[in-house]
Amino acid sequence: MATHLQLWLAVTMWQHLRRMGGPGLILLGLADNSLVPLTGSMDVLCIWLAARHREPWPYYALMATLGAVIGGYITYAIARKGGKETMDRKLSKKKAARVAKAFERWGFFAVAVPALLPPPFPFVPFLLAAGALQYSPKKFLGALVLGRGLRYSIEAYLGFHYGRHILRFFNQYYKPALAILIGLAVLGTVLSLIQYLRYKKK
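Above: the chain's sequence. Below: its structure in token form.
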């Protein structure tokens, strides 16, 4: 019953975001770069909208990047205000240490490269670490714009030029694709909840 409800909600949300076009990418970006990311959802919507050719593909790349940057900065700001406690609360000790080490070694590229990598590579830990470690806001925004801008530009370009094949795929595997996205989102929620409960016990 819950699965059917989740599928219905996902289909309804997808239809609304799809109709909204570019602004829908901004709203989705706010959620996708939160503490419970919607893995792969931004990529799918960006490619699908660009494949429809209603607007030039750079428009969708820009709107997706804008949504991702706003959402990412909110998470960064929350972690910056909370300090290292926020990172320790949301991440395991092993993951927090690994991400902190990446920042010490790579700095700017510790944000830019993960922002460029496609799902299922986890990006939220790097947003949290950048804020918790008081990384420069200007450098953070520069790295985030660079990584996400390149990623969504590539996806929108491919969506525009290979639109027929992409739309045919979406039409054929519409529900299975949504089910996979829902599963990934639910898994992310469960893992975040487990980490939170572990922290509360400690």
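The two ends are 35 Å apart (CA to CA).
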